[in-house]
Amino acid sequence: MPVRNGLAASADGRFIVAATGEYHESSGHRAIIEVFGFETGRQQVLEDRGAVYGMWRVVLSLNDRLASTVQVKGRSGILARDLAARETLFRKQGFDAYWVRGLAISHDGRQVVSGDEKGFLRPWRVGNGASLLERQESMPIQSVAISSDNKRVAWSLFDGVVKVASLVPGSR
Fold first, then answer.
1. Kind and range of the H or E run holding 62
2. What CATH number should be reported for the domain holding residue 85?
3. Total-model pTM
4. With 80 as the cut, is the pLDDT of residue 4 above it?
């Protein structure tokens, strides 16, 4: 039976993005990301056997870039995709954590921030998939957010503590 793992709406309300997953003992996991356009109907934009997409988070930028969590064989990761061009911009897999729980994409779609169950906070540059830094907390990261001016990132920990840091080098 299919399960909706993640759901996001475009800022202009033109479409909804849904991550769907299913599991069969004989074939394992199958993941699909679908776009439901109010003008274009339903389109499947990504399918993968052996992966889970969108569990915990699927997010959209203002320019229709999508970021999604990925999990393959018990190891987490993330992907960023340009929905208009229908291409994957980058995909990072093999994190030690089982799930990435926190995921945010900047309004301009140029940065993604992930936070996982092992406490790793990782901001990424979408254009080349480069990690901007890596910080490890003492407990799981539950959620992340990027300010609308792309200057700050916030994250919450499993115990409810919220932290904020600059994404701009040399500023506080």
1. none
2. 2.130.10.10
3. 0.87
4. no
